[in-house]
């Protein structure tokens, strides 16, 4: 069966689409077949990213490694049994259709709490949660005392992940490997950066996730999206001399994919 990677965080602007595109494309470049789904049915940022890639490659006559993107299929209400949810059935049909032909399915969730996101989290073998280096984002994982920085308890998103873990346990499935990815970490050793690191590490031990380094804030990511490109595509489109920022960003991607510890994956880029 395909290994399911879910990229989720109930807050927008954490870099989910960027992380999703780079992980999925990196896996394809390493020889794996990857199917991808975008559960943000309104904005479809990840879906647009893939569409931009196909349009750019067609226009330039290029053939670069690309994941298989699928929309959720339409389900007739008449076909549902009493009590069945149409969104559950649409997601189930999409996953079933892909897992016959791929090694990995990557599911990008919306930056809000939805039924689709809940169900997707319960399907996750690996859960990747991008988190901006900010206590505004951290608040989704846990409530914290502003004076002592003591963790008071899990917050809304952590509780949803806990519920997903319970559902998987009841179904006899392997536990979710939850990886929190720290994005947009500042280059300087600032006081807030140190406090965030301490808080994330303390919470990791308490509620059971691993911490992985993510992407620094870089202009290149905003430039890649309109053409649907990733850091690994730059040389293929004629950029022979990567600047120091691009080289550093490739290294960040390499370390992120390594830290995910996905089955059968040897990082070779």
Automatic annotation (TrEMBL):
InterPro entries: DNA_Partitioning_ATPase, MipZ, P-loop_NTPase. It is an enzyme of class 3 (hydrolase). It holds the Pfam family MipZ. The keyword Hydrolase applies. GO terms for molecular function: hydrolase activity. CDD domains: ParAB_family (cd02042). Gene3D superfamilies: P-loop containing nucleotide triphosphate hydrolases. Keywords: Hydrolase. Its EC number is 3.6.-.-. This is Sporulation initiation inhibitor protein Soj.
């Amino acid at each position: 069966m395909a290994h399911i990677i879910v990229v989720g965080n109930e807050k927008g602007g954490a870099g989910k689409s960027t992380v999703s595109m780079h992980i999925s494309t990196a896996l394809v470049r390493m020889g794996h077949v990857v199917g991808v789904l975008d559960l943000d049915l309104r904005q479809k940022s990840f879906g647009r990213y893939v569409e931009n890639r196909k349009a750019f490659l067609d226009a330039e006559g290029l053939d670069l490694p690309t994941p298989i993107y699928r929309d959720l299929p339409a389900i007739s209400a008449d076909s549902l049994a009493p009590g069945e949810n149409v969104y559950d059935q649409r997601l189930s049909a999409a996953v079933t259709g892909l897992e016959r032909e791929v090694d990995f399915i990557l599911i990008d969730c919306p930056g809000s709490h939805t039924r689709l996101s809940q169900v997707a989290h319960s399907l996750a073998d690996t859960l990747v949660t991008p988190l901006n280096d900010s206590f505004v984002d951290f608040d989704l994982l846990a409530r914290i005392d502003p004076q002592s920085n003591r963790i008071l308890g899990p917050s809304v998103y952590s509780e949803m992940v806990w519920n997903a873990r319970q559902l998987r346990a009841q179904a006899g499935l392997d536990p979710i490997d939850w990886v929190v990815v720290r994005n947009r970490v500042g280059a300087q050793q600032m006081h807030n950066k140190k406090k965030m690191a301490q808080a994330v590490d303390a919470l990791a031990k308490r509620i059971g996730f691993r911490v992985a380094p993510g992407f620094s804030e870089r202009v290149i990511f905003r430039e890649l999206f309109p053409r649907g490109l990733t850091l690994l595509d730059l040389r293929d489109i004629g950029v022979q001399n990567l600047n120091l920022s691009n080289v550093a960003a490739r290294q960040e991607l390499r370390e992120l994919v390594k830290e995910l510890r996905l089955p059968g994956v040897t990082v070779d880029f």
